[in-house]
C-alpha cells in the first residue's frame, strides 16, 4: 500500500504567486536563473539557485550558497512572501500544454515506501547529485520543490479532482518562456482528504516519473533524522516528502534525442553501410522526418534525413529493457558502430530533449558543432511502469516529461 498524508503547505499569497514561482532548479544553469530572476527579490531562484546572490562564477556547491538558501527561505517567510497554511491539506495542481491538461494531487509520500521499493524508480541516481539535494533539504529543513510521481488510473480520484477543477482555482497563471497554464486548488474538505488517503492506500506502488535525485535525497535525509531522534515514533514530518502525483494515462513523454560529434573515423558512406546490418535504411530527403513508430529512428546526416527501422531479431519484445528504442540505439548504433559505450561520461555525445524538437537537432549538425543526430520515438508511461515493476533500470537519458512542474507553488517543512 502507498502511504500518503496531507500537510500544512507553505505557499505564496495569491497576489504574489507569479513573482515567486519559478522553473525547477535542474532545468537551467546559474546564469539563466540570474537572468530570469532579474531584480525580482521574490523569485524562488534565490532559494533554489542561491548562487545568483553571489558574484558570477561562484560555485552552486559552495557551502555559503547552501547557507544563503536557508537565509533566503527564512526571509521569504518573515516578509510574508511565503505563508504556511493553518491546517493540513492536499492540493491539486493542473498543467495545460498545447490544449491538453493533466491534473496532479500534491501529497506527502512516505520515505519508508521509497526505501522499501514501493515508490519505484526507473533511473540510476548519482551520489554527487544526491548529496547536493540532501544538503539543500538539510539546510532548509524542507522540501522546497516537489518530485513528480505517476499512479495507476483511478476513477474515484479522477471524479474528485474533476469536481474541484470545476471551481475557481487558488492560482491560475500562464508561465513565462514556455507559455503553459498552471492552476492550483486547495482541498479542505475532510471527507475528500480521507478519500484520497484511502484510495492511495489501495495502490501497491507509486512510480517516479521525474525527480529521482530529489526522491533519494528526501528519503536519505528522513532516514538520517530518524537515527538522530531518540524519541522517533514514525509520525514526524521528516518521514514524509512532497510529491505531485498524476494519473499515468495523462502524462506526456517527449522524445529524448542524441547528437554525436564524430562518426568514429568513418565516412558518411561507411557509416550508412554499417547501419544496414541491423536496420532498414531509407533516405527521406531534406525535410525534417520524425519517427512514426516504435523501433524506427530518424538520422540526420549531411543535410539529409534517414529512416532507420530495426530489423527483426535485433530486439527482444519479452525484455522490458531490450525492447526499448533507447536500448536498441545504444547497443547497435552508439556502442557497436560509434564506440560510444558510456552515455553518462562520453564527451562525444550530447542529448536534446523536450520541446526543442528536431529543428534543434538539425541546427546543431548544420552549425558544424555535431556530425550527426539521432531522433527516437518516445518511451511510453506503460513501458516505464513495466521496467520499474521488473526492478530493472532504463538506459540514461531515456525520458523527457513536459510540462515541467513549476516550483514555489507549495513547500513542505520537515518540522
Characterization of the model:
The chain has 415 residues and is of the alpha+beta class. The chain has 13 helices and 21 strands. Strands 1, 4, 5, 6, 8, 9, 10, 11 and 12 form a nine-stranded mixed β-sheet that branches.
Brief summary of the model shown:
The protein has 415 residues and is α+β, with helices and mostly antiparallel strands. The chain has helices at residues 17-20, 30-37, 45-48, 63-78, 111-115, 127-140, 155-165, 190-201, 212-228, 268-275, 325-335, 357-366, 381-390; strands at residues 4-5, 10-11, 83-84, 90-97, 100-110, 119-120, 142-143, 147-151, 171-174, 181-187, 206-210, 240-247, 253-254, 256-260, 279-285, 296-301, 304-310, 349-353, 372-375, 400-401, 412-413. Strands 1, 4, 5, 6, 8, 9, 10, 11 and 12 form a nine-stranded mixed β-sheet that branches. Strands 15-17-16-19-14-18 form a six-stranded antiparallel β-sheet, sandwiched between helices.
